[in-house]
Design goal:
heterodimer, A: alpha/beta, Aspartate Aminotransferase, domain 2, 7-stranded mixed β-sheet, 16 helices, B: alpha/beta, 2 domains, 9-stranded mixed β-sheet, 5-stranded parallel β-sheet, 14 helices, about 30% helix, about 20% strand, transferase (chain B)
């Protein structure tokens, strides 16, 4: 044996690990599960038990069975394990690189509650008196979120953050219409660095959108708000801290100005990781707010849905909440469908129950002090990471001053020096087993990257992440072509994204893929 | 079946550069090879660009200033900056062929960047002059993209040469306010390498250097050039998007037209975005002139100050202007026809509407829009905040000040 030619994993004592992980992602060339289907293959076919088969009425019976893949249990398991190995996520990577999305840890114990047959086997059409337990979970989580936000009532029906924002603008529209001002109030004001779903939902609801630009300090210009509000103002829809991570110190004045003009103030608290137990939307005067349970309350993002959003409203807006609402009369829980001013349903049935259960379990596990500790840790982690990132030559954060729970950074300096783009830095960082993200609209910060550590990550995690970025930035200086050629240790190389932008090509389902590409 | 695809350069990226005016769809140049194919890039360097800057001369236009700069110890930097751009271009798209002029107007930079350029049969003067730039642009045939290194003055010379292909400026001048420039040489090289044929219109503006030396700052619009489109970044996104970048000139024009009131007159200032308003109305408005429209009809094109004063007299009138250059001027630069007297009439009967993309506003870095009609009283009429139309059913409320106030503060 030549002895020292390979890596010395077999020698004892085990050699110290190098500063950066020698990561290599799995590459399985795994076919789509439908392509692996063979007629007649089955997992476990459970024999008939004592429960008599229910005769379905003819009207709901399928003429032919669904075209599901037919596979043995082992191969199903292997398929999904392989896919999980070709992935980067919170469960195996340091996922601080998804600022504004917020990738925090989803405690596994909460999945046990969700997988309990009492939750997993609920049917949405069961009578109220057979689902008192889950209605109680909804009711109690609503009351807890009302306490956390200071709001009067909360709806847990929306299946995503943007659906919650849309529910809020729908309530705003219904509120003004109920006062005979629906036509007159046709403008919504937002800020450049509020999450873009605010402007998008307002536009979708038919409003004209007025945007306030940042001033020299990165704060939205309050004088511009003063000039923008008036009899046409329906609402201010604002994120705070904004996607830059900067907290608007004059937020109460913003709310007052809108109220004086007869408009409503709506707070995007999708990501409340820096705020839990520290500030409350109602205390700043807001009429509406929303949380993303998957950004703040630890539930999974679920890859585009179903996630879960929660809308909080003041007493004046409560009649407009999506329905049905869960009501408690002191002895039992029931669904109230008879609410004439409700904006209606945001999705079928109650909401995304598994995520409501997880969020409930998370809040119950932490308690009030725990929630505040979450916020304090998230802010501390963010500022620690910022301190380390800003010491990397070529990295910057546009405006001075403190940040709350995330920062939108810029590699402009590095790019001008090396010609290496921010996303190329991110792709190279994936060679070290971490995820990284640039920015969504607005594309104002040049060569952006947005990091948000939340409370989930340890100091060692943050040190490792910063060391990876420092290393890649250094590589960009020494050998830009090497960075540009990345990834080297990943499942896939460069991805051609044109299929994501072309309706003729994109295929969100096997059926669509078959129709568009295999026909 | 494999999930992988043949490796190829990432999706065309924005030049991140042209802080350009609104993008507008232009027919893609069919000759441009997609992705990684061989590109033919023209290169023109204005060797003396930028020498007046470090020497404190606020520009480099004219042989006297250039001599003075050299006497003050200035060095020629434009060639180095062009080489930097070409180096980035070749690194990112190695098959690229460079076509340029012999000597310091391109060959030296191309060779310094490791290229073996094809040379045009055109001998520039020594020292070279604006005429050499214009002649070189006219002689640049069958290239996919023309890179030029210089400043706003060079951009004007390029414009005068009527380029037959899209162009992109490598910033090397003292004054770089035009939208046809990339942010830096490396950005220009990267944008050139990623060019896939889509273009946008960018404005060429320049300062009157004589006035600038006397302390009066303000650009004038000279025309527009086609530049590689600043496409919205596609990678790193969270959701797919099939729509165009927000805030296109067409979206802005649609909103302006939707807001037009019957019987009211609209004074359209110069610029590509106001031109799009005319296009939306189906009217032959002018790029550089001031035009007046009413009820979907062109009342008068390219009017003088005196004509305008009559046209807005005694009726509801609105001024529709775009932001000229990177300093935020909306009145008093390139649209002097909207004089203090005209502005007073407009503000008494209608109002001021400013057109700009959100990107352009953001490019001001929080600084206000500027009015400088020459009459502080007239400027004060528009002072405060103004509605800036940024797209269809989209606007921003933005600060506007009198330039005198801003620069004396």
């Amino acid at each position: 044996m030549s002895g020292h030619s390979g890596e010395s994993f077999a020698e004892l004592p085990v050699a110290p690990k190098p500063p950066l992980r020698r990561f290599h992602q799995a590459r399985w060339d795994e076919p789509i599960i439908f392509e692996q289907s063979r007629p007649g293959r089955r997992g476990i076919a459970v024999p008939a038990a004592g429960v008599p088969a229910v005769e379905l009425p003819e009207s709901v019976r399928r003429a032919e069975p669904p075209k599901l893949p037919e596979m043995a249990q082992l191969h199903v398991l292997r398929h999904y394990v392989r896919l999980s190995q070709e992935n980067l996520g919170v469960d195996q990577a340091i996922a601080v690189g998804q600022g504004t999305c917020t990738m925090k840890y989803s405690p596994k114990v909460n999945d046990r509650f969700v997988n309990d047959p009492k939750v997993a086997e609920l049917h949405p059409l069961q009578p109220d008196d057979t689902v008192q337990g889950v209605l109680e979970v909804y009711w109690r989580l609503e009351r807890m979120l009302a306490e956390i936000s200071g709001m009067n009532r909360v709806s847990l029906q929306p299946a995503s953050g943007s659906a919650a924002i849309y529910a809020n603008i729908a309530m705003i529209r219904a509120y003004h219409a109920s006062r005979g001002e629906g036509r007159q109030r046709d403008q919504v004001i937002t800020t450049m660095f509020s999450h873009p779903s605010n402007a998008a939902c307002a536009k979708t609801a038919g409003y004209e959108v007025i945007t306030l630009m940042p001033d020299e300090n990165g704060h939205p210009d309050i004088e511009a708000l003063r000039a923008a509000v008036g009899p046409r103002t329906a609402a201010l829809m604002i994120t705070n801290p904004e996607d830059t991570g900067i907290f608007n110190p004059r937020i109460e004045e913003f709310v007052s100005l809108v109220h004086e003009a007869g408009g409503l103030a709506c707070y995007d608290q999708a990501n409340a990781n820096g705020l839990l137990g520290i500030t409350r939307a109602a205390d700043a005067g807001f009429d509406l707010c929303h949380f993303n349970l998957h950004k703040t309350f630890s539930t999974p993002h679920a890859c585009g849905g179903p996630a879960a959003g929660a809308c909080g409203v003041s007493e004046a807006l409560a009649p407009f909440l999506p329905g049905p609402t869960v009501e408690f009369d002191g002895s039992g829980y029931r669904l109230d469908n008879g609410r004439p001013q409700s904006v209606g349903k945001m999705r079928p049935f109650l909401g995304v129950t598994p995520n409501v259960v997880r969020a409930y379990a998370w809040v119950m596990a932490l308690g009030a002090e725990g929630l505040r500790e979450v916020a304090e840790t998230a802010v501390l982690n963010n500022n620690y990471l910022m301190h380390k990132i800003l010491r990397i030559p070529g990295a910057s954060a546009h405006w001075d001053g403190g940040r709350v729970e995330q920062v939108r950074y810029s590699w402009q300096g590095l790019f001008e020096e090396t010609g290496v783009h921010s996303e190329e830095i991110g792709v190279r960082a994936a060679d070290f087993g971490v995820h990284y993200w640039t920015s969504h609209h607005p594309y104002l910060v040049p060569e952006p990257f947005t990091l948000e550590p939340t409370e989930s990550y340890s100091q060692e995690d943050l040190d490792e992440y910063a060391a990876i970025l420092a290393h890649v930035a250094d590589e960009a200086r020494r050998d830009p072509e090497h960075v540009r050629g990345a990834p080297y240790n990943q499942t896939v190389h460069k991805i051609d994204q044109t299929s994501l932008d072309d309706p003729k090509q994109w295929s969100p389902s096997w059926r669509a893929y078959t129709r568009k590409h295999l026909a | 079946m494999t999930v992988d695809r043949p490796a190829r350069p990432a999706t065309p990226r924005p030049p991140a550069a042209p802080a350009a005016s609104a993008t507008s769809p232009a027919p893609p140049a069919a000759s441009v090879p997609p992705g990684g194919g061989d590109l033919v890039v023209g290169l023109i360097v204005n060797p003396v660009a930028g020498i007046g800057g470090p020497a404190g001369l606020k520009g480099s236009d004219g042989p006297d200033v250039q001599r003075e700069a050299l006497a003050r110890g200035a060095s020629l930097r434009a060639g180095d900056r062009a080489a930097q751009a070409v180096r980035t271009l070749l690194a990112r798209r190695p098959g690229t062929r460079i076509r340029t002029l012999a000597g310091p107007m391109g060959e030296h930079s191309a060779r310094a960047a490791g290229a073996d350029p094809e040379l045009l049969r055109l001998l520039p003067g020594d020292p070279s002059s604006p005429r050499d730039t214009t002649a070189a642009v006219a002689a640049m045939k069958d290239v996919d993209l023309l890179l030029f290194a210089g400043g706003d003055g060079t951009a004007r010379d390029v414009l005068d040469g009527s380029p037959s292909c899209p162009v992109l400026g490598v910033p090397a001048g003292v004054k770089v306010y035009s939208g046809c420039f990339a942010l830096s040489p490396a950005t220009a090289g990267a944008a050139a390498a990623e060019f896939g044929g889509e273009t946008a219109e960018a404005e060429v503006v320049d300062l009157d250097e004589e006035a600038y030396r006397r302390g009066r700052v303000g650009p004038r619009l000279y025309g527009t050039l086609r530049v590689p489109a600043a496409r919205t970044r596609l990678s790193g996104r969270k959701v797919g998007s099939s729509s165009a970048a927000p805030g296109s000139a067409e979206g802005i024009a649609r909103e302006v037209v939707a807001r037009m009131r019957p019987g009211a007159r609209y004074v359209l200032g110069p610029g590509a975005t106001t031109m799009a308003v005319g296009r939306r109305l189906g009217l032959a408005t002018t790029l550089l002139g001031v035009d007046v429209v009413q009820d979907g009809e062109l009342v008068a094109a390219d009017v003088t100050e005196r004509q305008l004063a009559d046209l807005v007299d005694g009726r509801e009138s609105h001024a529709v202007v775009s932001v000229i250059g990177g300093q935020g001027f909306v009145l008093g630069r390139g649209n002097q026809q909207i004089s203090p007297a005209v502005l007073k009439k407009i503000m008494a009967s209608g109002g001021l509407v400013v057109l700009a993309t959100q990107q352009k506003l953001a490019g001001l870095g929080g600084r206000p829009l500027l009015a400088d009609t020459g009459d502080p009283q007239a400027d004060a009429l528009v002072g405060g905040h103004v509605s800036v139309i940024t797209g269809y059913r989209e606007s921003a409320m933005y600060r506007i000040r009198s330039a005198i106030e801003e620069f004396s503060a």
